[in-house]
Specification:
29% of the residues lie in helices and 17% in strands. Helix 8 links the parallel strand 10 and strand 11. It is elongated, with a radius of gyration of 22 Å. The two termini are 21 Å apart. One of its GO terms (molecular function) is NAD binding.
Amino acid sequence: MATNMTASRPRTILFHSESSDPRWPDAIGRALPDFEVRRTLDGIPPEDVVAAIVWKHPPGMLEPLSNLRLIQVLGAGVDHVLADTRLPKGVPIARLVDPGLTARMTEYVLLHTLALHRRLDMSARAQKDRRWDFIPPAPPERCCVGILGLGQLGLSCASALSGVGFKVIGWSRSRKEGLRFETYAGPGGLSAFRRQCDVLVLLLPLTAQTCGLVDARFLEDVQDGATLINVARGALVEDADLIAALDGGRLRHAVLDVFRQEPLPADHPFWIHPRITVTPHNSSATNPDTALDRITENIRLAMAGLRPLDLVDPGAGY
């Protein structure tokens, strides 16, 4: 990673996102007036680019940027960045910690957990058949919500769910200490964890170890009538195995906001399955109003030769 830029050279920030708030480039430019913000590399020397803010960039796009000091991801997930085998060597990668994104994700998980707990999926099916099925309400303390992934998003969801009375347990790759709820860790703790859950919430990063985690073997080990919420990555779940578990009654319902292919193809069976709720990856999103301060702080730190916040460990995959 070269750092021999002269003071006279312009400093450029590359912004690339397939789908995001159109206010981003102007907002970054106003917050960092000493930098030029560009959406493409057309017409600019690659060596002028000192920072890249990206979401689902084309593989190899960043390779020629010899003076790049920071790759800032425009979201919490970084699997799409790490999948680029032609990233510049030695450049720090930072994921985005956005309080607005965290709040919206927490709302979504709380909303759908409450809906599953109150069995609104069953009421909807009864309404379709014009059946007056009285479903007695149960207190949330009788419902165990298991959160797979105890990063910032998982912990925020756990706090909100505990706050309305749900029993919360969590699982993560490595042991988490000092939390106010029961936790499990590693492959050895996964079976005991999932057997307890009425609602399973997927908030894991997508890595080589988590890809396809929720498969037939995983689902055979959950209790009958459990439910699933996936707000992480579609590839965590084996689609055919999920449908089989729903059809066989092992799972009662699944709420899916993320998919292996997005947009979800019109002929995908998820669309018409009576026990699946599909939402178009809108559980949360980054917002300049809440995320800009963190991004600009990271760029300033990188330009000063200091350690940016929320760095990614490429070896771990998150």
